[in-house]
């Protein structure tokens, strides 16, 4: 069974960190399983980014509240505001490049 998250928990993570990444996935999504290790590798390179991996099967309303209707979905928040979003066709190089730009700006 997937962990259920309250909207307040997710908002707390987003609003209490300069950068945060939310990864929406599903047990039945093959692409999600392929992309997830790449997302984890990106997160290792940027240790100040806080992250949540949310399985939509237990969090359908939560996913909908972030306008996530296709999987996988990656949303990066900077200072509480959505800065990067990719869904379905995820380009990890592009995500990392965009994260790097924001990360350097915040951490230098």
Automatic annotation (TrEMBL):
GO MF annotation terms: protein-disulfide reductase activity
Pfam families per the UniProt record, alphabetical: Thioredoxin
This protein's UniProt keywords: Redox-active center
Phosphoprotein is among the record's keywords: no
Gene3D superfamilies to which the protein is assigned, alphabetical: Glutaredoxin (3.40.30.10)
One GO cellular component term: cytoplasm
InterPro entries, per database record: Thioredoxin-like_sf, Thioredoxin_domain
The keyword Electron transport appears for this protein: no
Domain of life (superkingdom): Bacteria
CDD domains from the UniProt entry: TRX_family
Family: Belongs to the thioredoxin family.
Name this polypeptide is given: Uncharacterized protein
Source organism: Clostridium felsineum
